[in-house]
Amino acid sequence: MAIQYISHYRIFEACGMSNYWKKKAVEAGHAAHLISAELAPTIRQNQKTDKNDALAIAQAYLLPDVSFIKGKAADEQQKLQSTLRLRELAVSQKTASGNQLKALLLEFIIRVSSRRGLGGVFESVLENAEDELPMTFREALNAAWQHHLVVIKSIAAYDRCLEESVEQHENCKTTALVRKGRRDQCRQFVYSGGLCSSAQLS
Asked: Which of 22, 62, 97, 178 is 20 to 30 Å from 170 at the Cα level?
C-alpha cells in the first residue's frame, strides 16, 4: 500500500513489491521512503482497511524518530539476493530430505556411516536384490533418492548462477568470494551492501 503525503513524497509500506514501486517513484523524480511493515499496524486505529492502513502509514512517516527501510537500490543486488534465497531453500530441502532418508533406513536397521555416506548406502541398498525390502518400497526409496539428487543438482546450478553474476559485477569480482567457495561471506557481502552501500533487506 502507498499514499501520497505531499506532491513530491511517496511513502510505501515495505512488502514484496515495495522496492519496485520505490524505484519507479524515484525515477519519476519523487522522494520515496519505505515504512516497516511492523510499524504501521502498531499505529493503525480500528480494524484493518485500506483507509486505516493509509492513515497509519502517513502517521508513521510523521513520527520524529522513525527509521526508514532503505530497500534494495541495485537491480543486480536484488537478483543476487533472490538467487541466494533460492539456494538457501534448496540447502534446507537437501538437509530435510537427507535426514528423512537416514531415518527411514534406520527403521530397517541400515545405518549411514561417515565412511560410506548416504550415497554409498543407497547404492548398496538399491542394488542388493537379496535383502528383505519389498520391491514397491525399493522403488519408493529410489524415487526419494532421485529427488534428493535433483535438489543437490539445483544447488550446484544456483552456485553457477551466483558465480556468473558475481563475475559480471566489478565489486564482487575483486573479492572472488564465490570462486573460493566462501558462501557465507558472499551472502554477508551481498546482504550488507557490498553491491550498493544503501542496500538493506526489507
From this structure: 22
Tell me the CA distances in angstroms from 81 to 28, 188, 189, 200, one per residue in order: 25, 10, 10, 11
Neighbours of 112 (CB within 10 A): 17
Please indicate, yes or no, if residue 198 is contained in any of the structural domains.
Answer: no
Number of domains in the chain: 2
Are 92 and 171 within one domain?
Answer: yes
Q: What is the DSSP string of 108-173?
A: TT----TTTHHHHHHHHHHH-TTSS--HHHHHHHHHHHHHHHHHHHHHHHHHHHHHHHHHTSHHHH
What is the C-alpha to C-alpha distance for residues 25 and 39, in angstroms, rounded to an integer?
22
Q: Compute the radius of gyration of the chain from its Cα atoms.
A: 24
Domain boundaries, position 31: 2-61
Q: Of 39, 61, 83, which one is at a domain's C-terminal end?
A: 61
Question: Facing residues of 10 across strands?
Answer: 4, 32
